[in-house]
Structures are given as C-alpha cells and as structure tokens.
Amino acid sequence: DGYSDLSAYERKRLKNITENAKFFAALKLHESAARLNQLATKRQSHVTKRPKPKKVEDETARRRSMRLLRVEPLDIPLLETPARPGAEEYPQVPVGPLPMVPEDQADNSKWTEALLSTWMRISELKGDGADRDTPDVKRYQESLSSMVLSEENIRKVVKTRVCSMAIHPSESTILVAAGDKWGHIGLWNVSCRAEEGAHIFIPHSFQVNCMHFSPCNPAHLLSLSNDTLRCGDVTRAVFDEVCRSEENFSCFDFLEENASTAIVGHWDGDVAVVDRRTPGMSSELSADIGFRRTRTVHVHPVNKQYFLAAGSVDVCVFDVRYLKAKGNKPLSSLTGHTKSVASAYFSPVTGSRVVTVCADDKLRMFLFPCRHNNNTGRWLTRFRAIWDPKQEHCFLVGSMAQPRQIQVFQDTGKLLHSFCNVDCLGSVCSINVVHPSQNILVGGNSSGRLHVF
Fold it and tell me: Rounded to an integer, what is the distance from CA 453 to the centroid of its chain?
C-alpha cells in the first residue's frame, strides 16, 4: 500500500481515516470528505486560513475606551461627549489684566453680578478666625460624623479635571473656587442652592495648579497656571497678572500674612520669590535648590522664613532668607521616599509635623508612615494630603477604596473617619479643601464635579 514502513498502529489509523472519508463522500459532504482525503494522502499537516475579518464600515459602531482614545473622562455618556474646544474657539489668554467676565456672560449677566456681589460682600465681613484650641480626638470624630453629603451639594463647576481648589473663609456663605486642566476657574456659591450659583471664568491658558484666597483680603483670589500667577480682584472685577514666566510654574504659597510676597515652585525644580508690590512681571529671585522637579511648596505657619519643598523623591526645608541663585543647601531633609512625592505640608498650628503623599503607596507623617494606595494613574489628579486647619493632629486625603470616600487620618496613622455616600459619591476626589473655621469639606473629582460635606 505504500505504507509498509509504518507501524501497525499507523497503518490502522490511516485505514480508519480512509474509510471515514469514503463514508462522508457517500453522504456528499464534499468539503469534509476532501479534507479527510487530504489527511489520508498527505502526512504533513497544513494550517487552515482564518476567514478575513469584516471591514470596519460593515460593523456596527462600538463603544471605545476613553482612556485609550486619550479623551478626558466626563460624567456624561460617551456618545454625548463634546470634543475639546479648538484653538479658534478658545484662543490663548492674552497677557496683562483680564476683565472678570464669565464664559456665559451673554446669557445670565444678572446671575453673574449676583455671584460677584456676594463674593465682595462676604469679603468685607471679618470672621473670628479658626479655632486654634485643638479639640480632643473624640469630639473631633463626632464633628466629622455630623458632616453629610446631599444631592443639592453636588455640582459640576468646571468642564474637566479639578487640579486645585480654594474655599472662602466666610462663616456665613460657602463660596468655593475650582481650577481645572484647561485653565478655567469655576466659582460656586453653594449657599445659593440655585442653578445660577456657579459660573466659569477663563483667566489662564493652561491648567490651574494652585489657588488661594488672600489670608488678609479674601476679595483677592490668587491662581497659578503653568505660565502665569494672577490675582482675581472682585472689587475691580479684574484678573490682574502678578508674574509671568516660560519656566512652568507648579505651585505657590504666601511668605507673609499680608500676602504681598510668595514662594513659587517650578516644574523644573527651581523656586522663585515673587513680590506683588514691585512693578513688572518677573520674580525677585530664582533659586536652584537641587531638585529635578518641585510639585508643592508650603510655608511654615509660625516661622514664615522656612518653607517646605517636595518633588521627585525630595522633601526638604529651606530658609528663604539665604536663598541664592546656585548652591542652596536645605536645613533639613525628610528622607525615605522611594518614588515621586506628590505633596508635603506643615501641620497648621505649630508646623511641627509634616505629611507627605508618595507614589510608593505610603502616606508619611514624620515620623509615622502608613500604607495608602496612591496609584491614581494618569487619568486622575494626584492625591494631596492636607491638614485640617482646625486640627493640629489630623489630615485628609482622597482614596482609591470602594465605596468611594475621603479619608481622615490621625498623625499616628490611625484612620479616624471616612466621608462617603454610596448614593451621591461615586468617584475619586483627588483634590480636597477644608474650611478654616467651619465643619465644611469640599472634594473635587476628575470630571469637574465638586462634593460638599
């Protein structure tokens, strides 16, 4: 038969294949029979070709990953997602002062006027200031438990990812400012509880990295973008330009209570001293502190000459009085970080403690580290752990845990409380701000939505 060199088993197998092929041929299953005949006559196997996939135009439209498409996440379905405004619709913000006119001025100028009037009115009232008598932990936990989130206190205030927030110190009205990735600033009068209580302004061309109401005059809102530091003055309804640079600003903090000077961090690692009283748009001093990147700077609450800088794996304390262009040495280095540091802040009353957030999934309270998932990825703003200005020993930070929550820790690393609401809070609040004297917490997520507890 031509197969005498095969074993008895192989000959039997081929005989079975041949008989099966004849059987299927008798049934006129031509395709199967031809295939079996091929197996019987050829000892080598052949790889069958896969059918060609259908052309894309023949298929129905499929849902695509917003992350893979590099589209900013929004709170509305993908099919309704608007495209990013083009350069024609949103040109670069011009240099110099800008009028405090919101994006939607043409439709509701009366509502905008009411919002700005409220900001001006509450800035004239002097509060009693924050309660510096730090309450005991039990009383503090009770006050946290009394804070709740309701649907009317949730609002989409800016169009995209929240990168910074500030809360007005007024004790009568809750006014929150949020800065997003596109350079927009949203102002929301939470106490208004009406649709017209929030408006968007466009004072920057790039993301708003940092914002503070002036501690001595809350009619001023200072905001820092990559290329400029501006002061929104509601009494004159203008966004003044304080400082401009091509070196990419990252953060700032006031060096004095009168907010006339500030320390400004740069993404390339340098820091600069800015004096708002001097003419011109340049800084007074630019200093190389030896960092590859500076993400946050924070001034000591008591001894204002000291400031904390954080970035890459570095967290160091410097004395602003001895800064020079090159060769700066830190007074102290807080070591132990193995990956990039997202933020570092002094405790609010004495400044004797520091809390840091690091990409190695640890929160460090010098000297009490605790485990915490800080892996926010590229689609969420990085966490920043902030101290409660009313409590020397406790701080707040966003969380990746389910259900979504904002966590409060003691400086020993003990979890004291988790702000959550399964019905109202379904996203990660990376950026948070706490009122300096009232039990009010605002959390901002990466679609521009604010949540007020």
Answer: 19
DSSP secondary structure of 365-385: ETTEEEE------TTSPPP--
Q: How far is residue 337's CA from residue 361's CA, in Å, rounded to a whole number?
A: 10
Candidates 265, 333, 327; CA nearest to 299 is: 265
Domains of the chain plus CATH, in order, are 98-124+137-452 (2.130.10.10)
Residue type, 231: C
205-229 as b/e: b if 16+ CB within 10 A: bbbbbbbbbbeeebbbbbbbbbbbb
| pTM for the predicted model, two decimal places | 0.78
Integer-rounded Cα radius of gyration of the chain: 31
pLDDT for the residue numbered 58: 45
CA distance 330 to 313: 14
Q: Minimal CA–CA distance to 130: which of 366, 387, 365, 408? A: 387
Q: State mean pLDDT over 68-76.
A: 57
Residue with tokens 């957030």: 357
In DSSP terms, 405 is beta-bridged to 420
- DSSP assigned state of 16: H
Q: Which helix (H) or strand (E) covers residue 260, if one does?
A: none
| Cβ–Cβ under 8 Å, residues 453 and 148 | yes
Q: Nearest to residue 269, comparing CAs of 284, 252, 247?
A: 247
Q: What is the pLDDT of residue 57?
A: 46
Within 10 angstroms of residue 38's Cβ, the number of other Cβ atoms is 12
Averaged confidence pLDDT in the chain: 87
Residue 421 CB: number of other CB atoms within 10 A? 17
Burial letters 248-257, b for 16+ CB under 10 A, else e: ebbbbbbbee
Contact 257, 216 (CB under 8 A): yes
Task: Tell me the per-residue pLDDT of 273-324, one tens digit each, with 9 for 90 and over.
Answer: 999 999 999 999 999 999 999 999 999 999 999 999 998 999 999 999 999 9
Please, what's the b/e burial string for 105-143 (b: 16 or more CB within 10 A of its CB; e: otherwise)?
eeeeeebbebbbebbeebbeeeeeebeeebeeeeebbee
Residue (of 265, 264, 260) closest to 276 by Cα position: 260
What is residue 82's DSSP assignment?
A: P
* Cα-based angle 297, 343, 393 (whole degrees, multiple of 5): 100
Q: State whether residue 406 is helix, strand or coil.
A: strand
- Which residue in 190, 189, 187 sits closest to 199, CA to CA? 187
How far apart are alpha carbons 370 and 360 in whole angstroms? 11
In this prediction, residue 348 has a pLDDT band, given cuts at 50, 70 and 90, of very high
